[in-house]
Design a protein that fits this description.
This protein is about 30% helix and about 25% strand. With about 220 residues, the chain is an alpha+beta fold. The protein folds into 2 domains: about 110 residues, CBS-domain; about 100 residues, Alpha-Beta Plaits. Strand 2 and strand 3 form a beta hairpin. Helix 3 crosses helix 4. The longest helix is centred in the N-terminal third of the chain and has 11 residues. The protein is elongated and about 75 Å long. It starts with 12 loop residues before the first strand and ends with a helix.
Length: about 220
């Protein structure tokens, strides 16, 4: 996986495992679910709160995972882009996602906590800074914005674009900046005709905690 690393040390269940024993392994893992592998290929995820399988294991203690028809699990490709990883975790409350190679060959898992930590490093979220969002025409040259930021002592740590939901002619530019005075920068941007739709330092900042930094950044990174 480019830039984001997955784990190989998290237990993967085998199709030949008894359901009753496999459920105990899942519960003791603390992850809530574990991947199930058959002939090196990912076939599903076993959840510790799967009531149907809990009842089945009680009725037939020798029944194995091979008898279960699992729904196709949400999985990450080994070369997934970091943004795709982030979006995948936003679609599920799971603590982990399996990682697969070609032809669904199981490789390991990526923990949500690891994904958040690594995303923060990739997108410079560990650095102190300000999140600012601008509403601009899609025809805007980003070099013009960058030049204006540099003229006002603002260093761009991360830049992303997202389309406006109700207009094909409008976009939002999401900026993670290091700047000495975010309020003055906002006034300058507005004076040059840029509509500032979000400034994390307007009022009480939510970005003092690193976890909140990641959550707030991802909220505005709906690419």
């Amino acid at each position: 996986m480019s830039q984001i690393k997955y784990r190989k040390d998290v237990t993967a269940l085998k199709a030949s495992d008894k359901i009753s024993e496999a459920l105990k392994v899942v519960k003791s893992s603390g992850y809530g679910a574990l991947p199930v592998v058959k002939q090196r290929k990912l076939v599903g995820l076993l959840h510790e709160n799967d009531e149907a399988l809990i009842r089945a294991s009680e009725q037939n203690p020798s029944q194995t995972l091979a008898s279960v028809e699992f729904a196709e699990p949400l999985a990450l490709k080994h070369d997934a882009h970091p943004l795709e990883v982030i979006k995948a975790f936003r679609r599920t409350p799971a603590a982990l996602l399996p990682v697969v190679g070609n032809e669904s060959v199981y490789l390991g898992v990526l923990l949500r906590s690891d994904a958040e930590h690594q995303a923060m490093e990739i997108f410079s979220l560990n650095a102190d800074g300000v999140l600012m969002e601008l509403e601009t025409p899609v025809s805007l040259r980003l070099s013009e914005v960058i030049r204006l930021l540099e003229q006002n002592e603002a260093q761009t740590l991360t830049l992303a674009l997202r389309p406006a939901p109700d207009s094909v002619d409008t976009q939002f530019v999401v900026l993670h900046l290091r700047v000495p005075d975010a309020y003055r920068l906002q006034r300058t941007l507005e004076r040059y005709g840029y509509a500032v739709t979000y400034n994390s330092q307007a009022g009480e900042s939510l970005l003092n905690d690193s976890a909140l930094k990641a959550q707030e950044f991802l909220r505005y990174l709906e690419l």
